[in-house]
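Lecture notes, unit on protein representations.

Consider one protein chain, 180 amino acids long.
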Amino acid sequence: MYNIAQTMRPGALFLVSTGTSQCLDESGERCEVITEGEPGFRWIQKMFSAMHEAMCHFRGSPWPQPYWHKMAERNPNYADVTCQQMLLPIGNWLPTNSSVNHQYAAELTRYNIINLFKTLKHLFIRREYPEVIIDHWIEETSKELQELQLKTSAVWSWMWCRRTENSWSPSPVDTASDIQ
């Protein structure tokens, strides 16, 4: 974050967001990874779980958002640090009185997740999943999302802050190990 601040004009806004690998059901409860064929099984949670496991295997935790707030607050180059989480439906299963923007965001989320899972094939192959299994997962997840068989939401995290007016300060430490 220090290097990013060095490229920003004073007063500029820094915004970062990411989805997580955790889905919630229609009532806001966590979707657990359940064996295929069991009640409550969701292909989308199966895929997110496999993606998370594979990413952790190759590079540790893929989700830095638990540390964003502390990283920005401890950085003298930023001020007005704010973090927020939001549930975003995957597909437009929202009530008809929902805003057009929220409905559009839900549809874009579904479209993006379907395409994300298609791009993960190489990651799963590297993790030594059989290609026929990967293709089956992608096909079933796409079908589940296209047909909106189950009402599911994704958890999104945002963090934004403002670049201070002060001159840029370099990092006193190049690692984030002291943040935890």
